[in-house]
Amino acid sequence: MNITVKTLNRTALLALSPFVGIMLWLLISTAAIELSQDVPSDSIFEEEVSERIYMTEAAAGLDQARDTAVHTSKSIKTEIELYNKTNAEMNAIAKTATAQAKRPLQIYDSNITAKLGKPAATINTDKLRAQLFYLKNDSFRSYAVKIQLKSDDAMKMVMGGSELGKSMTTLEAVKQHKAAVGVNAGGFADGGGKRYPLSTTVMDGEYVSGFQASYSDLFFVGLNDKNKLIGGKFTSKEQLDAKKPKFGASFVPVLLKNGAAQQIPAKWQTSPKRAPRTVIANYKDDQLLLLVTDGYNEAGSSGATLAELQTLLRGYGAIDAYNLDGGGSSSLIFNGKVINKPSDGNLRKLPTHFLFFK
């Protein structure tokens, strides 16, 4: 009986021992987990400290960056204000300098204008300024147009038609090409019912009938590629080419060169002595002067002598001056109106015309 009870007790203990072991393991594990939660290891502590230091440093860096940005913004704003102020001052200085640089030219222009009198009419555009003057002379009536060219295409010479030998009046040329001002240009020779330009003639940089060396006091006058008046006697094509002529025509004689009166050929002193005249001249600032005189006939009893024109032109301050075809050829058109009184009673048909555009 006792043996049986002991045997049962042992059997029960063996059966329960696994469960007791599990309970003990759970108790020990729980205690270890709680211990690990309550007391952090050295590595975890160090990580937390490092993270806190990093966050502190980052916050300090952000504060410094913000302060730097504010300072930089203020500096940039100050620099911009200084730049704008300096730029405005430099612009003002540049405008003043430009105005001062132009002042001598303005004074010069006022002086030469005053010698001509008060303009009767003015055309002023981006291309040119043309001023018309009615002049008072003792022996004849005359008219002048002072022209400042502002554009490369403000002036050109045109022919009397699409074919060499054709001719038209200066008024017709003005209307056909829609010009503002027009004046007759070089001399001509008639032949076979046609009217041909005299001697060397240049259109758009090309020689119309080839180059002819100056003879019998003939000269060439026109504009170069810089819109400056060129003229004189040329013995070779290379000599004229060096002046880079853009257009021009020929006639006789040269009246002024560098402000000095030139010798008038004997023939032109008396044949005719007085007549309607057309002259093209320039000033030292490259403005042009057109001078046209009236005459009642071509017999030499009215109009201007070439010597009188030389005196007038020098008095007006002209530098170089060239006598263009005169007599019945003299034609001055301003703003669509014939200004002079043609000696033929009507405008003559001509092969070449100087036109000015607005």
TrEMBL record:
This is Phosphodiester glycosidase family protein. Residues 178-357 form the Phosphodiester glycosidase domain. GO terms for molecular function: hydrolase activity, acting on glycosyl bonds. It comes from the Bacteria. The keyword GTP-binding does not apply. The chain crosses the membrane at residues 12-33. Keywords: Glycosidase, Hydrolase, Membrane, Transmembrane, Transmembrane helix.
